[in-house]
């Protein structure tokens, strides 16, 4: 549907999201995709909730961080940010984040992969980014 912004190659050889760089313009891909959904199928961006699980949850988080107004809202499931985490996210963002306490695929505290060359970020540190982007009050005691 929206193939022109997503060339083959880059991170994952074309088989995974390039949310940490890698030569592809993922926000551009999604902008094109959401635009086509509206023009071809009458689905306005203001009615889209982007969700994803695991790697899709990471992509959802990165797009929400970079382009919070691109769709109505975001719902990452067991996904967050890779280390190093973004310094800040644009906001405000409509976000529902859900994560299992015992998740071993994307543990809440993060983990190292590929012999330590990749590191999933701490989910609670990512939630702090969302609190800052949405100008939320400090955590309660």
Short overview:
This protein is 28% helix and 11% strand.
Description:
By secondary structure, the chain is of the alpha+beta class. It has a single domain (23-133), classed as Alpha/Beta hydrolase fold, catalytic domain (Rossmann fold). The chain contains 3 helices and 4 strands. It has helices spanning 26-41, 55-66, 123-133, and strands at 49-53, 73-77, 111-113, 118-120. Strands 1-2 form a two-stranded parallel sheet. The chain has a two-stranded antiparallel sheet with strand order 3-4. The longest helix has 16 residues, at 26-41. It is globular. Residues 5-12 have low confidence and may be disordered.
Task: List strands and helices in order, with pairings.
Layout: H1 26-41, E1 49-53, H2 55-66, E2 73-77, E3 111-113, E4 118-120, H3 123-133
Parallel strand pairs: 1-2
Antiparallel strand pairs: 3-4
Beta fraction: 5-15%
Number of helices: 3
Structural class: alpha+beta
> How many individual domains?
1
Element-by-element helix/strand order: HEHEEEH
